[in-house]
Design a protein that fits this description.
Layout (H helix, E strand, L loop, with lengths): L9 H10 L9 H14 L3 E7 L3 E8 L5 E3 L5 H4 L7 E3 L12 H4 L6 E8 L5 E9 L7 H33 L1
Antiparallel strand pairs: 1-2, 1-6, 2-3, 4-5, 5-6
Helix pairs in contact: 2-5
Amino acid sequence: MQIARIPDNDAARVAALRAYGLDEGIDERRFQDAVDLAADLFGVPIALISLVEDNRQWFKARVGLEACGTGRDVSFCSHAILEPGQPLVVSDATRDERFADNPLVTGSPNIRFYAGQPLVNPEGHALGTLCLIDTVPRGLDQALTRQLDRLGRMVMNMILVRSRQRGGDEDRAAA
């Protein structure tokens, strides 16, 4: 298993992620709707909004998975955020040297297919991913790759709108 390298800008990236206040414990239906839609649209059993911090990834919304997060060291999404401009698609994790002996591949949830679209903020920081997971190998054609990109941008826009609303609420409370 290859652990993803830590990007040079990781401290700024994590600070940007934390500034959005996404970990405030609010159960937000809009994010759950996005992963439900992604699972249905792509026909996968697992879809996640995964946010990558210093030592862990945690799931803002999830379908098909009990876990609320994992260590960053086993995270596929930690690899995906290294290339913010494109999705990471792993057609068969058992045949990819980065992941073949990953405990998420060799054990539950038995990942075979992974596609992660980085969630990139306006400053260019990849905060995490919208990711699709299946227990059987598969691929994404160009049309599906474009749809994943669009859904990822929609999720990032939801984060930005939520942040503005949150800021507005705090501004009103302070007045």
